[in-house]
Design goal:
- It is a single chain.
- The chain has one domain.
- The longest helix is centred in the C-terminal third of the chain and has 16 residues.
- It has three helices and seven strands; from the N terminus they run H-E-E-E-E-E-E-H-H-E.
- The model has no long low-confidence stretch (mean pLDDT 89).
- Helix 2 packs across helix 3.
- The chain has 128 residues and is an alpha+beta fold.
- The protein has a five-stranded mixed β-sheet with strand order 1-2-3-6-7. The protein has a two-stranded antiparallel sheet with strand order 4-5.
Length: 128
C-alpha cells in the first residue's frame, strides 16, 4: 500500500530513522594530521553496531588539486546500505535519499555540504 506524504513529513521520517540508527551518537571527529593548518578534518559516524555508515570531510579554504582556489569544501560519503534503505522504504530516487541524508548531517553538525556520494561504491548497480 502506498501513502502520499508531504516533503516535510518525508524529512521527519528519514531524520527519525537516522537518529535511531545513530542513537549511541558514536561520532568521532579527527583532524587531518597531514594538513599543517589544522583546518582539514572529518567526522566518522558509526551505527549502534559500530559499523561506519557516514563520513563527513571538511577541506578548509585553500587550493584544490588543480591549483584552483576555493573557500572550503564539505564532502559527505554515505554507505550504500543507508541510501538503499531510504530509497526502497520511501520509493524515492537515490539522489533524493542522499540529499535528505545530507540535510540531516548539515543540521546535526552545523556544517556545509557541497557534495554527497555513495562510498564504498557498489559492486553492481542497485535494483530499481
Amino acid at each position: 500500500m502506498r501513502y502520499i506524504i508531504t516533503q516535510s513529513q518525508l524529512h521527519t521520517l528519514v531524520y527519525s530513522y537516522l537518529d535511531e540508527m545513530f542513537s549511541n551518537e558514536d561520532f568521532e571527529r579527527k583532524i587531518n594530521e597531514y594538513d599543517k593548518s589544522g583546518n582539514t578534518w572529518r567526522i566518522h559516524m558509526n551505527d549502534d553496531n559500530g559499523n561506519e555508515k557516514i563520513v563527513y570531510f571538511w577541506f578548509g579554504p585553500g587550493e584544490d588539486d588543480d591549483g584552483n582556489p576555493h573557500n572550503g569544501t564539505g564532502s559527505l560519503h554515505v554507505h550504500p546500505d543507508v541510501a538503499d534503505f531510504i530509497r526502497n522504504t520511501f520509493s524515492v530516487r537515490q539522489g533524493k535519499a542522499l540529499d535528505i541524508i545530507g540535510d540531516w548531517v548539515s543540521e546535526k553538525f552545523d556544517v556545509d555540504i557541497d557534495e554527497v556520494d555513495i562510498y564504498p561504491t557498489r559492486k553492481s548497480p542497485p535494483n530499481y
